[in-house]
Write a structure and sequence with these properties.
The protein is of the alpha+beta class and 93 residues long. It has one helix and five strands. The protein has one domain. 9% of the residues are buried.
Length: 93
């Protein structure tokens, strides 16, 4: 599967027995795997490159409805923010 980027739109209702890092609203993530989850009535789930989930967690994927595709506008804003951060680092150093 080719990876793609998404934006988190729903970080609510973290399961009590989830073990690992949790997603954050408005953060950008890279989907590295996707599959239909039988326990969630075949809803599509995403595995994310940036999030560590413990092998002991009963959940290894995040429901796809917690995310939206990354738009061109998101990418432009991300690049602008990265450039601004580089400028700030240059001034601080």
């Amino acid at each position: 599967m080719e990876s793609f980027r998404v934006v988190c739109v729903n970080d609510k209702a973290k399961p009590n027995d989830f073990v690992g890092d949790w997603i954050q609203r408005d953060e950008i993530y890279t989907v590295v795997d996707a599959k239909h989850l039988t326990r969630q009535r075949m809803t599509l789930g995403y595995k994310l490159a940036e999030v560590n989930i413990s092998d002991h967690s009963p959940y290894q994927f995040f429901l796809s409805n917690r995310f939206r595709p990354l738009s061109e506008e998101d990418e432009m804003m991300e690049r602008a923010l990265e450039e601004l951060m580089e400028e700030v680092e240059d001034v601080v150093i």
